[in-house]
Amino acid sequence: MGQLQPNLKREQIITAAAELVHLRGYNHTSLDEILDAADAGKGQFYHYFASKEELGLAIVDRAAARIRATLLERVERGQGLAAIRWMLRCLTDTAKRTKCGGGCPLGNLAAEMSDVRETFRRKLAGVFELWRQVIERALITAQRRGELRPGVNARQLSFLILSTIEGAILLAKVQHDARVMERCFQGLWLCVEQLQRPGGGREENG
Amino acid sequence: MGQLQPNLKREQIITAAAELVHLRGYNHTSLDEILDAADAGKGQFYHYFASKEELGLAIVDRAAARIRATLLERVERGQGLAAIRWMLRCLTDTAKRTKCGGGCPLGNLAAEMSDVRETFRRKLAGVFELWRQVIERALITAQRRGELRPGVNARQLSFLILSTIEGAILLAKVQHDARVMERCFQGLWLCVEQLQRPGGGREENG
Predict the structure, then answer these.
(1) Which end of chain B has less Cβ packing within 10 Å, N or C?
(2) Which of B108, B156, B187 sits opposite A159 (nearest CB)?
(3) A161, A199, A86, A187: which is closest to B194 by C-alpha?
């Protein structure tokens, strides 16, 4: 620790806090519990963070960075509708692997914090809007590639897809059953298929 | 209080607790704050509830009863797709009226409690499954009335609709903007319209 890797302890604290907050919520997790899990003292903590709130916002930043790296960048590099379908499958696989434990870290914090802490709400709002824009751009690409009918409102559809994702993760969490997510996404895809251009670029393995 | 209206105080405690929990979450609301808001003493509280958890479960029961009475019973009495569209408009109107404050009481508790208290998870899972079944039955009615194409999977579509509802309420809450919900539902309806039977029972004012 210390001099050579000055941020290692900071990262350890964020990791420990993120895990606890993911399962138990921000307000229900005390700073003492976080420090205990991170094997860190109060002095170390206040060396890196001005407050528990600053740590909470760092958790949001870290979760957002992870979603960008594991999902959104691949959707951006991807191929229209196939990229969106890949994202849905990726989310379902995660739910299966984790047995739906915790749900969506960003969705949980949005539900918990939006009305009580404006700093959290603003940061989370920015992440969700970025996510939606990535989806919208993929839909516009799909339209250019002739997969989606030209008249389809990509913006409205991106709102539908993101709300379905967040709602599906929540329902799977409360039912403790990842198949709930699959059913929500099957319903979504049933609809998206109706908006595809007849015979035009229908993706098979997307 | 007391003899003539034995449950009045109980109702007052549930009402005060439901309001606090809706905005701040269950774990972040202390029993003392609830009693203060309800103008009740500890003795009165333990006369009606064995624990804070029992009160929390009563909050879920009350929220579920309200959704049944204000939304689901009308969807059941309603007319296929028009009834579902009415439900979506009703939810958007509520979000506009309350400026998205609080979000969905059941969704919030599902996000907060599903992984930490099995009693809450089970009760909430039952309410969401009931809600989904009401939507599924309305879709089957729509199919019988010739509004929806016979091949449409009503079960999958009901999962899509409920997940969109919960996701849309969450996104509107984090964006502090009820128009977000409108856009999600417009995207949903754009899709549902594609599943309608051409020329068959298309509802105009639903």
Answers:
(1) N
(2) B187
(3) A187
Nearest chain A residue to B25 by CA: give it: A112
Return the pLDDT at B6: 62
Of all residues in chain A, the percent with pLDDT exceeding 90 is 85
Query: What's the gap in Å between the CA of B77 and the closest CA on chain A?
Result: 24
Task: Decide if pLDDT at A1 tops 80.
Answer: no
- This prediction's pTM: 0.94
Does B162 sit within 8 Å of A191, measured CB to CB?
no
> Which residues in chain B touch residue A173, judged by CB atoms under 8 angstroms apart?
110-111, 114-115
Average pLDDT, chain A: 92
Instruction: Return phi, psi of residue A3, to 5°.
Output: -65, -50
Mind telling me how many Å the CA of B65 is from chain A's nearest CA?
A: 19
Q: Report the gap between the CA of B47 and the closest CA in chain A (Å).
A: 27
| Coil, helix or strand at residue B196 | strand
Contacts 24+ apart (CB under 8 A), B88-97: B88/B165, B88/B185, B88/B188, B88/B189, B91/B165, B91/B168, B91/B169, B91/B181, B91/B185, B92/B178, B92/B181, B92/B182, B92/B185, B95/B169, B95/B172, B95/B178, B95/B181, B96/B178
**Residue A200, pLDDT score:** 57
Cβ distance B164 to A165 less than 8 Å, yes or no, reads no
Closest CA to B106 of B165, B22, B191, B190: B22
A54 C-beta neighbours (distance < 10 Å), count: 11
Size of interface A-B (CB pairs under 8 A): 195
* Contact between chains at B184 and A159 (C-beta distance less than 8 A): yes
- Residue B41's DSSP bridge partners are none
Percent of chain A exceeding pLDDT 70 equals: 93
Answer yes or no: are the C-beta atoms of A163 and B164 closer than 8 Å: yes
Please report residues of B whose CB lies closer than 8 A to that of A180: 159
Residue in A closest to B119 by C-alpha? A174
| Confidence band of B2 (pLDDT split at 50, 70, 90) | very low
Flag if B176 and A125 touch (Cβ within 8 Å): yes
Listed residue (B94, B86, B69, B63) closest to B138, CA to CA:
B86
